[in-house]
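Journal club prep — side note

Before the paper discussion, L.F. wants everyone to see what a predicted structure for a comparable chain looks like in token form. Sequence:
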Amino acid sequence: MGVVTMEAESSVRRHGGRYIYEELRKQILTLQLKPGAQLDEVSLAAQFGVSRSPVRDALARLISEGLVTILPNRTTLVTPFEIEEFPHYIAALDLTQRAVTRLAAVNRTEQELERIREANVAYVEALGSGNFQDMSELNKAFHLEIARAGHNPYLTRYYEKLLGEGQRLLHLHFDFIVSSQSLTRPEQDHDEIVQAIANRQADAAEEASHVHTLLFRDRFLEFMKQNMTKSVSIL
């Protein structure tokens, strides 16, 4: 668990549960808090110098996002990710991503298209920064703009959970994505999706999003093949 600095302590006092939520979320997504790590309310309250109430609020929000899980025995832990579940995750991501992207091509407004383009520009600019947290947040923001443009809040909420889980996987192998020469460059990944949405081509948008999911799958599996050893685990 990270150390809370004096500046952070001041922020905790001012913002309470919101700061604790943001800090824990960052540590989960960047794998500082490993999948399966236990989260104890009492210990977290002592770490952040607050009562248990704001910690409980922060954990409840993380639970709603699928990043934290409560077991039947009331143990709270960072949601595990077992590599055996990866195909199921990809299947869910693929179906949902295809649906929201298709809907965006049909339903988007000009203002929403502009927000999608702006989000993609911000993501591409972040690729050169070396800050994986910024990259994953901006990638998620891009895809959520697409989902919102589809105007189906049920799909958007579920998609946001899937993207949150994907952020942990992205952080695990973002350096491999950026440096890989065998696959398309990451800044090219979104271009066909944006173009199809701009042209209101629903079939093309769905197909481009499907290809995008497969690229994510293939990069992750290639990373696992080349880099994962007995000393490195996401379980």
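L.F.'s comment for the group: The domain at 83-227 is CATH 1.20.120.530 (Four Helix Bundle (Hemerythrin (Met), subunit A)). Keep this in mind when we get to the figures.
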